[in-house]
Write a structure and sequence with these properties.
Layout lengths: L3 H6 L4 E3 L9 E5 L11 H6 L4 E5 L13 E4 L2 H12 L8 E6 L4 H14 L4 E5 L2 E4 L2 E3 L8 H13 L4 E5 L2 H5 L10 E4 L7 H4 L2 H14 L4 E5 L3 H9 L7 E5 L6 E8 L4 E7 L2 E7 L4 H16 L4 H8 L10 E3 L7 E5 L4 H11 L7 E5 L9 H12 L2 E4 L9 H9 L7 E2 L3 H11 L5 E5 L6 E4 L2 E4 L2 H15 L1
Parallel strand pairs: 1-2, 2-3, 3-4, 5-9, 5-10, 6-9, 10-11, 11-12, 12-13, 17-21, 18-19, 18-21, 19-20
Antiparallel strand pairs: 6-7, 7-8, 13-14, 14-15, 16-17, 22-23
Helix pairs in contact: 3-5, 4-10, 8-9, 10-11, 12-13, 15-16
Length: 480
């Protein structure tokens, strides 16, 4: 039997938490958040065309005299995953979903998995930091893992377009805030765990516990786990799934899927793929040990889905660079090479710098900063890695949010033994790096990748590392 809320919602087509994003026949959902109380925006939502309102009843004394249908619910936020799942007719049961979690590698793994599955004739969409859809055209979304309402709508939208699979990034925030509750995952992939989000989780144990919970909560489906990672190893041991539903991958430890004899040069990466006792040579047009792990995770997911090893290896030939991840910006031979990358943790920064260290570049120039209002503890580690693995550093502004950009830069610079260049304006910093680099050098602009904004205060202003780099390369070419 349907409850009062389910009956109420039958007359509408869409749910939203955003009073400014009201489409046809939409219900506005309002409850208290960390920064704002959604109930304060009910009138705005109505003015923007909302046709109904569902609001949290607890501690709400305002006398609402609404001109549209409304219903008050106690404990509304905790019920959202279930509400959205039912409202959109259980969309995750209509498509096979692979949830990918970990500190680094989520985007690349999900992107490559979707490419491989599409190559193999199994129509697959992507959900994550880049947006959602297929690699040809992503629709932008606000978070790596959207809200409980939005994620169910996105899955519904994807399933209605006849996709068979979804490769989906699953963030620790999304897990902890229960945004992914009521989603059926067929596979769960764990990439790694290194320091990040300490402003949110407070301790590494709490951070690890969130990831572990997601990986071990599934009572069916399969898990694919990097057992070189300590947390990954504990997940693999703790999981109660049958052994044939647990796929381990690694480089250093013995596992079901392992990479050995890894070598790389400026053009490609080679290794032997040891797959359940058989060995196959692999060559990829990418660098970095971290990308070997990403490929191994993808191989594990494809194996779990029942593809044969010859199909899997064939599909790896289709993978292309991920926007904003180890991405070289096209330039003439007379100009320095320039790469953009999303690296914003010490581990990710170390991975990207090590991946290019022996690639015949004379010098590596690194432009980076750190996000404001986020884990300040990682700034020291990032500084140490940057100084150790690059030849010259320019410290600049990332997304300062409500922190003073100068304070962030100083907080990084103080951990260098030799003083780096400090330039507050990110555009100017990128221009400086390109200007002082020689044609045989590599400039890495780290931290933002494919992002097209810079978060200053509470505003997101348009900013693209890629566009800025292209502009400065063009200017330098004209000078030459």
């Amino acid at each position: 039997m349907k409850n009062e809320l389910e009956i109420f919602l039958e007359q509408f087509d869409k749910l939203t938490l955003d009073s400014t994003q009201i489409s046809k026949n939409t219900v506005f959902i309002a409850y208290p958040g960390k920064k704002f109380d959604g109930r304060d925006f009910i009138e705005q939502a109505i003015n923007n065309g909302a046709k109904g309102v569902v609001f949290e009843s607890k501690n709400f004394k305002k006398n609402l005299n609404l001109s549209i249908p409304s219903i008050a619910i106690n404990g509304l936020k905790s019920k959202l995953p279930s509400i959205a799942d039912k409202f959109y007719a259980y969309p995750s049961k209509k498509v096979s979903i692979t949830g990918i979690t970990g500190t680094n590698g989520k985007t690349t793994s999900a992107y490559w998995l979707s490419q491989c599955l599409n190559y193999l004739g199994s129509k697959t969409a992507f959900i994550g930091t880049l947006g959602y859809g297929d690699a040809k055209s992503f629709k932008k979304i606000r978070n790596t893992t959207p809200s409980a309402l939005d994620i169910q709508y996105v899955i519904k939208d994807i399933s209605e377009k006849k996709y068979k699979n979804i490769a989906m990034e699953v963030s620790s925030h999304g897990i902890n805030e229960k945004r992914i509750n009521n989603i059926n995952f067929n596979e769960r992939l764990f990439t790694n765990l290194t320091r990040d989000h300490m402003d949110y989780h407070k301790t590494m144990k709490a951070y690890a516990d969130v990831k572990r919970k997601f990986m071990c909560d599934g009572k069916d489906g399969s898990i694919i786990v990097n057992i070189d990672d300590k947390v990954g190893e504990s997940i693999f041991k703790k999981s109660t799934l049958a052994s044939d539903k647990k796929i381990s991958f690694s480089i250093h430890k013995k596992s079901k899927i392992q990479a050995t004899n890894i070598s790389q040069n400026k053009k490609n990466l080679k290794f032997n793929l040891n797959y359940y006792g058989e060995s196959f040579p692999i060559t990829l047009e990418f660098g970095g040990e971290f990308n070997v792990y990403n490929i191994l995770g993808v191989v594990g997911c494809l194996s779990s889905k029942g593809f044969e090893i010859n199909q899997i290896i064939d599909s790896l030939n289709c993978v292309t660079g991920v926007p904003g991840r180890s991405e070289y910006i096209k330039s003439r031979e007379c100009l320095p090479s320039v790469m953009i990358d999303y690296a914003h943790t010490d581990d990710a920064l170390e991975n990207i710098l090590k991946s290019v260290k022996n690639n015949a570049f004379k010098k590596i120039l690194l432009v980076f900063g750190a996000g404001g209002d986020r884990d300040r503890g990682k700034r020291k580690a990032m500084a140490k890695i940057a100084e150790m693995l690059s030849d010259r550093c320019i410290i600049t502004t990332d997304n300062p949010r409500n922190e003073n950009p100068i304070d962030i830069i100083k907080d990084i610079s103080k951990h260098f033994n030799r003083k780096p260049i400090e330039i507050i304006d990110r555009k100017e910093a990128i221009g400086k790096a390109i200007d002082i680099a020689n044609k045989d050098d590599l400039v890495i602009v780290a931290g933002k990748g494919d992002e097209e904004f810079q978060e200053i205060g509470n505003k997101k202003n348009y900013f693209s590392d890629r566009k800025v780099i292209e502009q400065f390369l063009k200017e330098r070419e004209l000078k030459n």
